[in-house]
Amino acid sequence: MREELSGNTAGLKASQSRRLLATWRRRVQQRELVSAELARHLTELSREVGRQLGVLLNRRGEVEHVIVGDARQLVLPDIGRARAGQARLRGLRLVHTHLKNEPLTRDDLTDLVLLRLDAIAAVVARDDGLPGKIYLATLLPFNASGDLYRLSEAPSIYDLDFDAQAQVAALEQEMARTAPVREVGVEGRAILIGVHRGERTAAEASLAELSELARTAGVEVLDTILQSRRDPDPRTLIGEGKLQDILVRSMAVGADLLVFDRNLSPSQARHISEATSLKILDRTQLILDIFAQRAQSADGKLQVELAQLKYLLPRLVGRDDSLSRLGGGIGGRGPGETKLEVDRRRARDRIAVLEERIDRLSGDRAVRRRQRNRSGAPVVSIVGYTNAGKSTLLNSLTNSDVLTENKLFATLDPTSRRLKFPRDREVIVTDTVGFIRDLPRDLVNAFRATLEELEEADLLLHVVDASDPRHEEQAQAVERVLATLDVERTPRLLVFNKSDRAPEQARMLALASGGVAVSALTQDGFPELLARCEEILWRRGKVLAPGHEPEFARPRY
């Protein structure tokens, strides 16, 4: 262990530095918070140099760090900012001086919580250099009220009733007993974090959607935090101070996961991860995780893996930009190749393999579509925002049993069923993956082989949840994804679903946009829906000439 001073050492006299270095030779008894001799040594020097001084003591009573601050505060050395564990403390206690008769500061208490110190104490350095009043804080076990620490004080260290050895052991034992236990089937206990610079209502709606995504992923949401910022912080998105507050809050509620309602840059993710041992996810990672859980078919799993690797690759690069010149290949392989470069090369190779396999799958689908087209049956594709009721509509129309859940992205793999119209006419109805606001670009690209099904459709049924107050924003999000596909000339019909929940709302929306109001659960509105589909597909021609789409076929969102 190197005996050196930490912190604000500039301007100290040589004699003062020597006396401070002599602090390393002092010991306290294991049961003592601090000895009277060490306390006086610190307060005398603190008053002399006009700065706060502190020591970090281990449980053997040995000095591990000597810290020099300024007149108002001291900054602890890097002892690992990550939490030591729900039921364990750091094994270090901080004793430092205050030059005024002030209690422990907010920064003191934050350090206590985030570093999980055994205790933190401030000894007032009186004008005569002697130790004065002492302020003490210790952590509390996990409790329903969310209290994190216990504060106490005494006129002097002689009046302080604190057995460091016994009380810390009892505290850790109680922490182990009361530590929150994750329920079976729960993937994490999370705090959701949103940042906005404009309208708060839209940000709150987005955070509510993130909460639904978390529920779908099997995450228990403990709290949501929404911050207003003029500009996102380039290092941590939310700023260092706010991040500290959130980490303290995570301790209070027993969270082990932070989920951000924005996509974090590789640099931001790294800086946030360095501040805590909590798992960090952004919106894209959460959606990718849901897709990974939900994908059932072989091609669906390939597409999810491709999207995950494309998301991961720049973050592998971001971990150490200084190594970006050490490319794999000639001159780069062998013992000298870094693990980072191995990971990056393997990721690129796997991406190339997946893209080739997905291209083959796309070709296979094209063959099946051509065979289907030769059968003469028109194709109706159901599109819409996730959880709008697309699979329920398919089931009700075709008497099928496609999986339906009140969760986002219940359906990932396209499903086709035959539907018989009056006069023995048949159509093929296809259910597709649901869309969502800010759907990750890599995910859209990975699922392009699936979304190509829409380009061969003769009619798109755009299902909108009429009962959702954000229905217009959701419909626009779907239209933005459709705009990236070759479906501009494909007629589409707006279907305002869940009229059983909001009958008047669905009726008014359908009337205003030329759509149809239905309830996929009760089948209300189905006769009109089938009639409108038949009108588009047969009475006006199965394949419409460009520029001759029915007036109601183009959404007005």
Characteristics:
557 residues; alpha/beta; Rossmann fold; seven-stranded mixed sheet; six-stranded mixed sheet; elongated; disordered C terminus
Your description of this structure?
The protein is α/β, with parallel strands linked by helices and 557 residues long. It is built from 16 helices and 17 strands. It has helices spanning 14-21, 36-49, 106-115, 164-178, 200-216, 240-253, 266-275, 283-294, 298-318, 339-374, 390-398, 441-446, 448-455, 471-482, 503-513, 526-539; strands spanning 5-7, 53-58, 63-68, 92-98, 119-125, 131-139, 149-154, 188-196, 219-228, 257-260, 279-282, 379-384, 415-421, 425-431, 459-465, 492-497, 516-517. The chain has a seven-stranded mixed β-sheet with strand order 1-3-2-4-5-6-7, with helices on both faces. A six-stranded mixed β-sheet has the order 13-14-12-15-16-17, with helices on both faces. β13 (415-421) and β14 form a beta hairpin. α8 runs antiparallel to α9 (298-318), α9 runs antiparallel to α10 (339-374) and α10 runs parallel beside α13. Mean pLDDT is 82; it is low at 318-334 and 543-556.
